[in-house]
Amino acid sequence: MVAGHPGPPAMTRHELAGWLEATAHDLGLAAAASLPAYRTTAGEQAAWQAAWGAADNAGRLPWLERTLAARLDPFAGRPWARTVLVFAFPHLWDRPANLPDLPAPAAGAPAGRISRYACGPDYHLAARPLLAELHRRLETRLARPLRHEGGADAWPVPERFLAVRAGLGQTGRNRMLQLAGGRGCRFFLGALFVDAELPAGAWPTPADSATAGAAPPPCAGCRRCLDACPTGALHDDVPLRLAACRSYLSMEYRGVLDACQQGWLGDALFGCDACTAICPPALATPGQAVDLQWLLSVPAGDLRRRLHGTALAHAGPTLLKRNAAAILAGHPGADARRLLVHAAAATGSAVVRDTIAIALAHRRPEA
Ligand code: SF4
Ligand code: SF4
Description:
By secondary structure, the protein is α+β, with helices and mostly antiparallel strands. It folds into 2 domains: 13-97 and 121-203, no CATH class; 224-362, no CATH class. The chain is 38% helix and 12% strand. The strands form 3 sheets. The chain has a 5-stranded antiparallel β-sheet with strand order 4-7-2-1-8, with helices on both faces. The longest helix is centred in the middle third of the chain and has 20 residues, at 123-142. Residues 1-5 and 208-214 have low confidence and may be disordered. The structure holds iron/sulfur cluster (SF4) (2 copies). The site of one iron/sulfur cluster has 13 residues, from helix 8.
């Protein structure tokens, strides 16, 4: 706890639980919790860094490593904050894919697949009204203006660690938050720091200390995600190995894809659902398939306009075209070769051109 908290708690633990439940229901949240300010220890930070290095991840996410200190100790840079509200919200997982501006392939034509959660409006944008409404309701409940800072994913805050610490669930073998109660991992997380002192509390209420020992850990007896991962990027008890992860390669890695990386990519145009679609095993709707011939020929400006407001804008035209070329590399036949040759001549991107050159060099001779 941070020393020098002002005044008594603004709500009792019991009142907070009721408020969280009512607010979460109204906003369509899956879970919400209040976590009083804390400071991480040097030991916790060293353990995280050691595990990150052991998974061969050092240097692979420069933006994450640049903000590591802030991530590992989120209250250190917010000395005004007394509490963080952390919440989980469902987004698109069980709705039909809805990216009408990205054409589907004809039957049998080469296709790339977009991860299910990205087949519609960007979840970062979906979090904004939730954060604004959560803040507004808390100010109303406490009857005073609150200094606050909120976000979801696109800021240096470790929402999953906060959620675990707040009692919303545990980190599963797929390295995502497993919501308590066996509700799986297909949720997004957001957090709202406020300068009000609130007691710790969560909705749904986590198992208390008297029963926590009886509840099995979320992954007990289960290895579905490890078995489902197509590239072996997941291992027990170490962070996800980014180098082999389709999500990382398709969305975060910005360089030329070598032959090995092209093989790992499979048909992943943007993201990979293999380790989340089976946790819990109920996801019936696959991600959207996109016509690769169209994708490689559409002008970058046109594509950028079509991506606006979706999570795919994070990748942008260059990465999507690079990924399209890498996926196409795995397609046999002269048509795929012709598409690659044409795309190499048409692109203004060295990353796309060099990825295609590697793809062409490693293709089997046409029959
Ligand atoms: S699929 Fe099984 S092992 Fe993997 S995170 Fe989910 S519960 Fe845990
Ligand atoms: S996103 Fe795909 S490649 Fe990455 S760990 Fe999960 S299943 Fe493996």
